[in-house]
């Protein structure tokens, strides 16, 4: 998953980079590997800074000050194609036609044929293995076909319509045309999110923002958030806003995993509050847990979430069951999200660095025996013999987190650990922008629920049903006809995903394949962890970047004070 941003300020000299940088940090949870900003200043000139690393590592005040102009595009990256080399950090840029900058969230599934087309027919050089660079070049090639000295909105719609026929997969995109404006579009199935908001100015005009999630609009003072519709393109310039549905017949199928894990709870995606949907996941799962407690004579004393993402649903589940909710795992706030870290070794190491079990909650058997309302009395009791805990998870994917935290809970004294997951078992590859290309890396692949429990060391695992997961989201917007649930069902909404493609993807992107590709000279440093920062020296600028310019000269040019 990646985060994308576009900002158009009415003031052409306005500090777009400052706001984009702020906004990117609000999307950091969508990608921790690389980030970048390109702005457009006077005479349509682009200013770029991108590199591997988190937003706070790549952008210091000086880096932001060198990005001039009143409009720009930003990106945080979680790679799903190509490599994690900083040359694949986004936004991408092509100079012809007109000068285009491009940021993409999602993943294309027909890159083999696109690559051939770009080489043999369009004669465009693709310099990386990134699918996003191909997508940009398809767009550029379609614009080129107009042959015009200056293009208009109609030409841009035609180019994107063509792209929607040529490109298969998931793509939410933001593009910027030099001296023209910002364009956002979403694939015909609307698999990945992107929305728009605006800010009224004193003169009646408006600044425009595009972002992957609505939290950006809330936190940055923009209003009137609305989703870009599936298959829709929106173009904003300083004088106009134009929008068009370019692929109206496709089935709308946003990815349900955004609600389970990816998006921030304070975002609203496609009219559904992520927070409310997670509460509903907890409520519906509580019914299954209650049934199992009765049928299997299971007694649960306490519900413990695996922070962060599962907290909302875990609290709701605990309340539904009348059980105490306790924060038994403390999270190190300086370690990023582990699931989106590259490589299994890094993910495993970081679960323990990130989460620590509090012995107080796990070994003090007289503390948390039954339900919350009797806590004080019970805490005075001597050792009880009921020590079943329920560890609540939003999802079990590779099982990395589950295995480690179950062991931690047991090491801390819990006798039995049950795991409830608000998503069903994940048994299939993701091809639309989540880096789960190889089913053999998924703990539930080819395993029954009992076998998953054994594999992660749990005494019992309870999965949400797919029907209840869909109901948790759909009850808040029944206009969404269906969701992309491919990781649970193996059904891919775009078509074009057969066994041969999945085998190819797995060869290309499994952890094993990536390990072979990875450069060996430097030890990998987990995103969000202490380690060598990428800093200004590793950033990629454009020919007119300020890299190497002395402080004195920057001050003379008015870039820094
Ligand atoms: O089964 P696994 O392969 O281990 O993956 C699933 C876990 O990874 C995610 O946590 P993550 O640390 O990425 O982020 P969070 O702090 O937002 O929960 C997710 O919330 C699960 O806890
Ligand atoms: N997660 C994503 O959206 C990734 C975007 C793009 N496929 C890349 O690898 O850079
Ligand atoms: Mg988690």
From TrEMBL:
One GO term (biological process): 'de novo' IMP biosynthetic process
Chain sites annotated for binding Mg(2+): 309, 371, 394
Active site (UniProt): 2 (nucleophile)
Keyword Iron-sulfur belongs to the record: no
Keyword Ion transport included in the entry's annotation: no
Cofactor: Mg(2+)
Listed EC numbers: 2.4.2.14
GO terms, molecular function: amidophosphoribosyltransferase activity; metal ion binding
Pfam families associated with the record: GATase_6 (PF13522)
Enzyme class, UniProt record, top EC level: transferase
Reaction catalysed by this enzyme: 5-phospho-beta-D-ribosylamine + L-glutamate + diphosphate = 5-phospho-alpha-D-ribose 1-diphosphate + L-glutamine + H2O
Keywords of the record: Glutamine amidotransferase, Glycosyltransferase, Magnesium, Metal-binding, Purine biosynthesis, Transferase
NCBIfam families registered for this protein in UniProt: purF
Family: In the C-terminal section; belongs to the purine/pyrimidine phosphoribosyltransferase family.
The protein's name: Amidophosphoribosyltransferase
